[in-house]
């Protein structure tokens, strides 16, 4: 393969930290009749489409006076819908939308249509809110650090009692954030618990595809997800949170691939889990020790809940699986949906809302199991069988970008209609032109990059595009760049396996605004000083966490004796709601590398 290679220095370009001011209309407008108007400005585009889950892909029209590309679609049922703009054949997120779908591959924005007859179950309501912790734990199975999200209910920090645990796994190509940022599991839990409809519980969101991060040594170990779950994540949760550690107080469930992982790990470990939930999931019948011993299996399961949409690509497979369970005499309860657009997160949220009231409630679960749920609908005969071809169509093979090879970093983008593609980023003094390789993929290889964390993007015929195959996005307001971490970057998670990292706690203020807290143990019980980190006007709340790696800097400096324990509090915008011993604003730094150095110095001097 031919590569165009440039030697670059550590000269950094100044990154804009303020949102441009313009008079463009909002990119999405929910109209009184339930329709949605999409607006998008791009003066370089020849054609623009919008692709939204409730309506599919449609061509937008450019207003001759305003220059805005626009279209009105719908009406749509109130819910959360992924969408993107397709600009001259390239899918990009809405630069005006702060909320996005975390994924290893596709990059979509989120359209949240509020309820018309009261709040939806996933809406932010005026109820006590739990917190969501981002945790980093060392996995001996994977030979590296892995990450997970952990929800604790509002009462958790107000007492010392222990809680049951629900392990909830996202689907194919999803990251560990999806059941939080798209599935809204924390808000669903908050609302159900506040309404007395669900038991208080801890919810753990694992990363379902650790092959993306694991070492080559670990990849020889077979089913690494299941091993990591049992041998690393669950022990971490039980050592660091107040959990009830028996099968009657553990549940496991998931969506799509995550549902299959949940069923496999649940059914094969009925000494650990007695509540099993499958949401539009892949299924397996190759567990003879489970299915051929129905009496013993049924005696250990409190809830076996399966949900699927009749218009889901997995419906025929699920239908066959349910018939298989009936033949084997395995007790279960069913729920079917129609009109939620098939294999979608509209279904995933709906199923979570339906099952959470049953979890850790033996009477409610017993009634659901005895009732059996909905009757199994007959197949119509036109259901598409789920084959490797269907899988390939839904999840086409991606180019690899960025790829680290022989001290070089290779960036690639498939853009068949493009006339010119450039790479721009904090690691470059100016944008560099990319070239098509023999496979028709735009490519460039860089050497000499200083180990650090940089934000970058492509420019396709004048349109800025994030790297679609890089799962790491900078949570910025406006256009969101991709994140590049060069091996050996300062304060990398995987540099020091002995560091115990503090959770990054996502909390709510009284007005519903989110903020983040990192609070390491003081060691001697003394009151800790506080450092406030402001994201500025362009960056989102989690930028100091996910781009600047503030938590990693703090915990590694404490471990190395370079600073004393202190509390980090992170807020959106330019104003702090509280006084602090030190305050840093991301707007004051031209790059995130400069912001990291400023934080390091502040912590050392505190």
Could you describe the 3D structure shown?
The chain is an alpha+beta fold and 606 residues long. It folds into four domains: 5-13 and 399-473, Sandwich (Immunoglobulin-like), CATH 2.60.40; 28-95, Immunoglobulin-like (Sandwich); 131-371, Rossmann fold; 493-605, Rossmann fold, CATH 3.40.50. 20% of the residues lie in helices and 27% in strands. The strands form five sheets. It has a 13-stranded mixed sheet with strand order 19-18-17-16-14-15-13-12-29-30-32-31-33, sandwiched between helices. Strands 4, 5, 8, 9, 10 and 11 form a six-stranded antiparallel sheet that branches. Strands 1, 20, 21, 24 and 25 form a five-stranded mixed sheet that branches.
Write the layout of secondary structure elements.
Layout: E1 5-7, E2 28-30, E3 36-41, E4 48-52, E5 56-59, E6 61-62, E7 68-73, E8 80-87, E9 90-92, E10 100-101, E11 108-112, E12 131-139, E13 144-152, E14 165-169, H1 178-181, H2 185-194, E15 202-205, H3 224-240, E16 250-255, H4 257-267, E17 275-279, H5 288-291, H6 294-300, E18 303-309, H7 315-328, E19 333-337, H8 345-355, H9 362-371, H10 388-394, E20 403-405, E21 408-413, E22 421-425, E23 432-433, E24 435-436, E25 442-447, E26 453-460, E27 463-465, E28 482-485, E29 504-508, E30 514-518, E31 529-534, H11 543-546, H12 550-559, E32 566-571, E33 582-585, H13 592-605
Parallel strand pairs: 1-25, 14-15, 14-16, 16-17, 17-18, 18-19, 31-32, 31-33
Antiparallel strand pairs: 2-3, 3-7, 4-5, 4-8, 6-7, 8-9, 8-11, 10-11, 12-13, 12-29, 13-15, 20-21, 21-25, 22-23, 22-26, 24-25, 26-27, 26-28, 29-30, 30-32
Helix pairs in contact: 12-13
